[in-house]
Amino acid sequence: MYLYVCIETVFRIREYEALTVQMMQNPQILAALQERLDGLVGSPSGYMESLPKVVKRRVNALKNLQVKCAKIEAKFYEEVHELERKYAALYQPLFDKRSDIINAVYEPNDEECEWKPDEEEELTEEMKEKAKIEDEKKDDEKEDPKGIPEFWLTVFKNVDLLSDMLQDHDEPILKHLKDIKVKFSDPGQAMSFTLEFYFGSNEYFTNEVLTKTYKMRSEPDESDPFSFDGPEIMGCTGCQIDWKKGKNVTLKTIKKKQKHKGRGTVRTVTKTVPNDSFFNFFSPPEVPESGVLDEDSEELLAADFEIGHFLRERIVPHAVLYFTGEAIEDDDDDEGEEEADEENDPDYDPKVRTVYGSQQVKYQNKCGLILCKHSTYRTHTV
User: Fold this and answer.
1) Which stretch of DSSP H or E encloses residue 258?
2) CB 217 within 8 A of CB 193
3) Closest CA to 272 of 240, 239, 296, 248
4) DSSP code for 165
5) Mean per-residue pLDDT, 73-78
6) What mean pLDDT is predicted for residues 89-95?
7) C-alpha angle with apex 306: 300 to 310, nearest 5 degrees?
8) Looking at 33-47, 51-65, 84-98, 332-346, which range is the least confident one?
9) What is the DSSP letter of 46?
10) pTM to 2 decimals?
11) Which residues does residue 192 pair with via DSSP β-bridges, in sequence order?
12) Interacting residues of 282 by C-beta distance below 8 A, sequence separation 6+
């Protein structure tokens, strides 16, 4: 009898295992299970509800202290912004000289051009002589170039985040890009920064400068103070591009055939429709007063914020290293480390990375301070 019960139990276990395997292979069951698990994330465990009233009262006091901490943290970020503004003025003469060299306004002397390579970059005398001959040969073959041709276009093409925005018809225009500057809001004004793109005379538009302004907030939201995690980009505004006739690369003309319902005749209709272009960057979606955006606009703005931040924090200060590719190698090393960290992070969600470019974006400002522990490239919703 005992042996019979044991055998029956084994069979039941095997049947249960087989049924479990079948269920886990059913996509509908898996989806329902995932939805149930997602609903549990962040939900209260019931522990707080079980606490005595007097303890809950003390917890509320701790929350009020936390709100005060958030307000102090906001002041900290405001002072960091002031430091950024102060040091931006110190960097600017160096950036201006960089622009003068790029655009052949200033020719650096021999002392300024001398660069001592790292130990890893040191070459033997034979290799140096060979490289010198190759350089002289190239100089003989080409006309004497002025400044550093296509400097900013090369930077854009070297960086995946920016090159993904470029279309073939954008490149001839970006050859005329002379400089990119970052301007911070004046003291006493709302926190913001503006990217200024300076162009030389060209056949595409009449603007000398194209601008993109990002408005920021560095204070806790009264309705959700515990969500404060550093400065948040609230919205952005572009500028009007004064395109010359027939040169607007953000639009394209298509022809469609239409058949008349009654007569059955066919006619060709010409329509102007939006065209993919880097210069759409200067026409971002507007954030309505309600703060409510559709999913496509929210994703587009999230990507826009990431690009604006990257230009401000990485490209403009370190442009020469992105031109040579040295900064890209460092970024790749950092990305490899971040991906390894993400794999070990139980809270990491790869779906967020797909949409926003980065789930947890960490960056250091020029003071060496971590400004954002998590992505601040999000639109503000009321």
Assistant:
1) strand 251-259
2) no
3) 248
4) T
5) 88
6) 96
7) 145
8) 332-346
9) S
10) 0.70
11) 215
12) 210, 211, 212, 238, 239, 241
